[in-house]
């Protein structure tokens, strides 16, 4: 028979169920010689009918090998390890092997620097199970380690039997094997691969030990065709000194399945001892047999303590649950894990907690109790069901009081729990007891990382940090890529603390599958703190000793508590002192060593975290210390022995923050410990500070505050008003922006308005002094901070960042009560672009005084951009005439024959070049082409331009539309040869005039000229006045005006953009040839009226001067000064011959007297 067909015959998948055959069925179908048997060599050598389907798999741990069941049906493989034959291996306890990585690292009081390592024989699975034990006589503290694949003892016939080792708490790694079960009768039993040491438990100090071999086999009809084997399993109970007292009734081997109904449907494969434990009252030993009743499983409670007999209780047990009494299906594995305790369901009653990790394909945990004193049955009180498919809920269970309320809580491991699309690999469910009412309990779920098998082992490790709450450890052996990790969780008044207090890793110790087994809740090194042991599948186990947990208490005070800035108490400075006293307390009064601590005193910690300098500096500090820190050391001689230190600090000069107190932080760390007597050759462990206590004490140094309330609390009342102004160029006057309908100010940005001003008024009416009062403004890039203007006696100082996006304006320190200030914040508009539609400004008043209503003020400004683009036009000449003879269109050959030449020039003007460079625009010209009778008015000959690029106007068909007329460079109208007929005589003109514009009397076409540049671009239009039309239709008028309109049009113009002067009109005056002089001269009546008006004004002026006495002649006495005279040098003419001629004296009319004989002239 082929292996595949053999397996398919035993395990086939139907539409709704999967049926896997039992060991007996596989043996009967496949036979000993079938190729389907792939058992390990040791199993094949031991007996001829090894269970099928077992294949060898390397564990990667120091050469040890695991035997796992290979099958193409995972659903079958999940349950087969317990159904397998004698060669079934640790896969019976692993189910699925998954790997993961993790990065979390925490540490508390389990010492990781002085770990005790115990190594076993390679391949023995040394460390598969662990238990801590204390002998009382002699007093020894031991770690018991199971090695289920250890070699057989000397008298045993098997090669691999497994065994139990005892390890003393020393640094030596060697351990001693405990000798028991050292005989074997192959006629009735087989101990090959019996896995002795698969579980081990201690009753406690001075108590007994139970260890089991769940694959122990009972043989019948050996060496006959009817030979059979029953995998019943067997356990041993040892005395406190690890021996077997044959006189003690409860010591020796225990095999409750032996002698009972055989077959896998009953007790033939019960595998007793896969889990075993003692009850907390030490009266009973509890065994799990998950293979009984077609692997449904049973739990059996046996009397152990002989004191019951002494008390007169002769018939106490055994108690058992199984078969129809358990509401679980076959293949549930009830009894796979066990624990017990009182005050779980009914006060002081005993309750057994049993795991069934394959119940309903997800797992379950069953709470059992004795039915009555007269019955030997265990009844189910409550059942917890697993959360998801194949999560192995109940793989391990532990009873622990996490919240210290006296009721026992339950912790359940589900190592194969997973959640889709989440990195979760295993879970632990924590049920906090509600006074026995489990139906009201919602569990707390702890998660492991992906593929870590988190929860494969859970253990009550006692109150490891001595905070009055028991703690737990959770193993995740496949964490960290298979190195394994153990997570420590602390209990609390609220239950479990979901963040692990410490994480232990096997990687630093070069171990694999670290955390496969756990043991704790016993003090091994006599320091009053329980220690913990961690096993692995790498033939090694580690002992972690718990460090004592202490708390350093600090008493700190400062003097003076309030600093008066006006009083200098330290020469020219202000000083204060810090007095700090230290003591320590341990949770055990017996722990009383001398400690050396280091302390640190720091000032203004919060300010320094914000990058601000400290306001205080310490004196007499070490040169290596910073000015805000003081470090030192002290010796604490024992618990409650106080040591103190006094430190002086000085206040720095010119501090700004005078409102907030100066926090002084005092912290301490353990620096060393005086050497004590070494116990068991182990190094002394350094105590650790209690993590639940604050790491530092903070005391505040306050300032004496003036202008505050009687409670020394300053409650300011800062309020702010604001308005928006703008300032034209080269002016100092500000003009307020007017709001729109929605009460939003509008800023019209043009080349004349460059600065935006924010008028701000801040007052502190009816409030206390506002310390460190300031206004913080946040500005956009398009309106960045430029400066501040203030006319107050005390100027406002604003400090801005590099790009002007924020400015802090100091209002005063303090800003006094009932004071106010007004200033302007100038904002630059240089960053504005055509895309700027609004400006958002945030204004925030700040103060260190108490004020709750200091909400930020949002300022919004709408921006309208006025483009300073304009178009100007001119016509050359601006006056033309018509006359001559009428000539038809077809008779014309050159443009001179059309009429007078008129050149139009339209120029684009831009006085704000930088802003409008990205604007796209075009020039639109309304060209007067025909009159209302459809006759030509202005004939467009050519369009040219000046600028960076040539401008092409459209439609091009309007340019020289009569293709037979040739252009000419002549500037005058050529006269026809021959006799001309005058248009009319001067006397025949009506004296009327007319304006020809588009839409009224003439028909226009629109010329569109896209502009390539917006500065200095000019469009020139060369045209001819259609002489014949004016002779025929307008000869009776004295003159006409033809209006040509040009306008600028923006393309894709934003809503916030407008043109200031978008269009222009150009007028040309047209007159008949005979009326030009009349039109150009001034009319005679205007000249007459002007002459008469001038004469009238002159007469009026003369009259006014006469009335004022302007024409009245002054008298001599009135006109000549009476008391002033001028002396003039005497005139002495001189001749060529040197003689002097004297003239006769001439009397001057203005002289006042002639007393002086000297001459005057």
Automatic annotation (TrEMBL):
One of its GO terms (molecular function) is integrin binding. Signal peptide: none annotated. Residues 869-1072 form the Integrin alpha third immunoglobulin-like domain. It is a single-pass type I membrane protein. FG-GAP repeats lie at residues 258-311, 320-377, 379-440, 441-498, 502-561. Keywords: Cell adhesion, Disulfide bond, Glycoprotein, Integrin, Membrane, Receptor, Repeat, Signal, Transmembrane, Transmembrane helix. Its main location: membrane. The chain crosses the membrane at residues 1084-1106. The keyword 4Fe-4S does not apply. Residues 708-863 form the Integrin alpha second immunoglobulin-like domain. It is found in: Membrane. InterPro entries: FG-GAP, Int_alpha_beta-p, Integrin_alpha, Integrin_alpha_C_CS, Integrin_alpha_Ig-like_1, Integrin_alpha_Ig-like_2, Integrin_alpha_Ig-like_3, Integrin_alpha_N. GO terms for cellular component: external side of plasma membrane; integrin complex. Residues 546-706 form the Integrin alpha first immunoglubulin-like domain. GO terms for biological process: cell adhesion mediated by integrin; cell-cell adhesion; cell-matrix adhesion; integrin-mediated signaling pathway; leukocyte migration. The keyword Repeat applies. It comes from the Eukaryota. Belongs to the integrin alpha chain family. This is Integrin subunit alpha 6. The gene is ITGA6.
